[in-house]
Predict the 3D structure of the following.
Amino acid sequence: MTVGWLAAAVAGRIVSGDPDQVVGNIVTDSRSLQPGDFFIALRGARFDGHDFVDEALRRRALGALVDVRRPFTGRQTGEAGREAAPHTPAIVEVGDTTVALQDLAHAVREATETKVIAITGSAGKTTTKDTVSDFLSESYRVVKNKGNLNNHIGLPLSLMQLRDRPDVAVMELGMNHAGEISALVAIADPDVRVWTNVGDAHLGFFASADAIADAKGEILERAEPHDVLVCNADDPRVMARASRFAGRIVAFGEADGASVRATDIEDLGLRGMRARVVSPSGERLIETPLLGRGNLANVLAATAVAVEFGISLDAIAARAARLRPSDRRGAVHQLRGGVMLVDDSYNSSPSALKRALDVIAKEPRATRKVAVLGEMLELGAFSVDLHMDAGRAAAAAGLDALFVVGGEPARALGQGAIAAGMPPDRVTFFDQSAAAAPAIAAALRTGDVVLVKGSRGTRTDLIADRIAEAFG
């Protein structure tokens, strides 16, 4: 990538610098910049990257992409600035730097022969992304989003990895409003689309679960006949919309019509899941340490993708047995005193919480079954009712102790558990995770199995860390 190629890709104007200079990494944070990198000055709700252009050049950036409304004036002050940036910086002006970043990512994607896989869904996106990447690594050079870089800025930055010409890029697409997936699909132009499910995450931004399904259904847009959709045969909202996909459909799940189907399913509690998987390339018994039916569906989705790419079922089974959960997404920690911590504190939604409670309910080795459940955010007007329903699910899981953390919705969760028959003295309320952490750690006993789950904003990760420290 040269400065000239970059400018053409974003319909920008080169104000200064040599068009033939080769561009290093694309960065949007001047603090992470290395000599030779190219800085894109993005405007955000709480910051404006144009305020850091001088800093980027002092760090020996090759140049910067700037908004024509905030043109670069070359104001570098002091000797340090002149010593750090002796070259003429390559400055490219555009009408909107965020749109330009997206255009640049799309141009990079179109300039390579990398196969792009795009994954969306209400739950399981990251686990599916990581599992697809693991399975395909058997035969291909694979890149994926790092962390949660899956939005209108994170996805373009992730696609910059295609400059190294990997065989496959596995990209997670995130959203909480209608229209976002559509924009991301236009940028990534995926060859394979994976739709894991429709749930109740972000329900506060939508009128109904059907509205969420319509927004997630934007993954079907812009498809060509040779494109592939891998979708959940067990989710009626997914399948009701999948029929309008212009390419080929490969369904996964437990349903009879699924192309990649799980039968003879065994729930192994905190040891994971086992099932016989039937596919167009044969069938195998597959066991994974990932927990619960939700994760089994994620493994099936990844298996469907891997089979499409010619990975053998023997290789898939071997890799499935070695899978480990993504950070704070159902990680099981065997602690001192026989305490088993299930750290699922990365995020939560009503449907995902019920799946996690089901895992705890089926664990036969627990002396006591304990859950620490943080308030689930972004549920809007549905919040209290959904938390009450989650409380009923907590009671049905046979918990010996329940700790709830958060405001009014969290209290509704605890009240729902009590109304469903859980003794009130086994339900404890806390307003904040920081205050709850030491008390909960002190209340645990030898042989307890404890689930910690909540929305990121509730910070139940603090509780999981305190438990790990107390019993480490």
